Amino acid sequence: MIDLSDTATLATRTRPALNAGNGAAELVANDVCAWFNKRLVLDRVSLRMERGEVTALIGPSGCGKSTFLRILNRMHELVPKAQLAGTVELDGADIYAAGQRATTVRRHIGMVFQKPNPFPAMSIYDNVLSGLKFVRTKVADNDALVEEALQRAGLWNEVRNRLKELGGALSGGQQQRLCIARALAVSPSVLLMDEPCSALDPTSTRRIEQTIEEISADVTVVIVTHNMQQAFRVSQNCAFFLAAENEPGHIVETGPTDRIFNEPHDPRTADYVHGRFG
């Protein structure tokens, strides 16, 4: 078990090179356990998130999906008294290894949250570039990068003549796509998405799903969703999480999305994906 507030403990882990950043990468969790204030909330979660594919994390509320997602880019360690066991590897490199900076990890493994969070007092243009400034990265042509990121996020045609307007003035769906553009601007190898469409209308939801489909060849996507139709539409692989009363979350079943929905091995999976509980 690792106390994530104890840097001395983290320093005992070896440090392989983190060489991701040249396109989509494979992300592998091995026997991950997580605690909050000594309470076990995830138990021995192992999952391979394939390079250049979309993996959907499904399951009822409170079964640890979002906690697991945050472990994948070291946001779990921001929680006081959080602890962790197991490993998370990005193309074979342990992201929790000694000397592996969290900011570097998050440069390679980006995150889009449930609620759109653009910087409201910052322009659309500057919002896209803000991630680069955070990781202290310069590019030769900011204008070209902004256009490319907004194109990939499916927002360019709607804001191309409004780049100096405030990001907070956009609609909810546009703000979420702006956050996706901001994440893509730093060229991550993996993009984590925590219910990115839960507060959006069907039109905005469909546009973000199209964006996921378009970027997944170049960026490995891991998405938490409670929308079973969405999971079926956007993902190639699924992991079904479940937690019983007073027991930690764990993975019941993983596999190709089509099999999970049509021929699951566990009856609990069938009950969940067909809406009989959850």
Structure description:
The chain is an alpha/beta fold and 278 residues long. The chain has a single domain (2-115, 189-273), classed as 3-Layer(aba) Sandwich (Rossmann fold), CATH 3.40.50.300. 33% of the residues lie in helices and 24% in strands. The chain is built from eleven helices and eleven strands. It has helices at 7-10, 65-71, 102-108, 124-134, 142-152, 156-159, 172-184, 202-215, 228-234, 257-262, 267-273, and strands at 2-3, 27-36, 39-49, 54-58, 82-90, 93-94, 109-112, 190-194, 220-224, 237-242, 250-256. The protein has a six-stranded mixed sheet with strand order 7-8-9-4-10-11, sandwiched between helices. Helix 4 (124-134) runs parallel beside helix 7 and helix 5 packs across helix 7.
Rg = 19 Å
Q: CATH homologous superfamily, by name? A: P-loop containing nucleotide triphosphate hydrolases
Number of domains: 1
Low-confidence runs of at least 5 consecutive residues? 7-12
Instruction: Quote the distance from N terminus to C terminus.
Output: 31 Å
Largest sheet: 6 strands, mixed
Strand order of the largest sheet: 7-8-9-4-10-11
Structural class: alpha/beta
Order of helices and strands: EHEEEHEEHEHHHHEHEHEEHH
CATH architecture term:
3-Layer(aba) Sandwich
CATH topology: Rossmann fold
Strand content: 15-25%
Mean pLDDT: 90
**Assembly context of the chains:** single chain
- Tell me, briefly, the overall form: globular
Roughly what percent helix? 25-40%
The helix tally amounts to 11
At the first level of CATH, what is the class? Alpha Beta
